[in-house]
Amino acid sequence: MALSREQMAQRVALELKDGYYVNLGIGIPTLVANYVPQGIDVMLQSENGLLGMGEYPTAAEVDADMINAGKQTVTARRGASIFDSSLSFAMIRGGHVDLTVLGAFEVDVSGSIASWMIPGKLVKGMGGAMDLVAGAENIIAIMMHAAKDGSSKLLPQCTLPLTGVACIREVLTDLAWLTIEDGSFLLKERAPDVTVEEIVARTAGRLIVPDDVPVMRFA
Length: 219
Fold this sequence. Notes:
Elements: H1 5-13, E1 21-24, E2 43-46, E3 50-53, E4 76-82, H2 85-93, E5 99-103, E6 106-108, E7 113-114, H3 129-135, E8 138-143, E9 154-155, E10 170-173, E11 176-181, E12 184-190, H4 196-201, E13 207-208
Parallel strand pairs: 1-2, 1-5, 5-8, 6-9, 8-10, 12-13
Antiparallel strand pairs: 2-3, 3-4, 6-7, 10-11, 11-12
């Protein structure tokens, strides 16, 4: 069974480390804020000008003026700071973000990512994605493994306009956790009840499959 959005966020949350400054992209990545493991302290950054983003608010906590970059209402944790977007991007471009989690349409075996535009469809623009892929120490792409028609989104070469070139080293899909090494996807973990054969069938880019592929764990 493919992972739910919440399970994908829970798996990525295991990659958070104490003291990290983390930027969560629009979409599934924003859910990671709800699953920060106990016992670690991370500061979540939103490029619209918030450092110290907390979990999604309850109905009683909603403040329409407290939003993330995706215009979703969020909370601010103790010690949070609010500032203008120019300062936020100075943090990103200055290399002060330890981990970025971005949604993606396509990722290829070189680590290039397409995440902002599908030709012929209305888009609002790239937003902060180009800065994030250039400025973060580590980037995790989180995405569907295949399109609705079954075609793979893990490719030999991206076909959509690129967000960044050779910048992705780890990918989480609804089927698997993979790293990108030496021009190949390396299968590290599989989703519960998903077979290695299914992952192989849905991966267009070169895929290396170890003898043992453990089942994914979650935060």
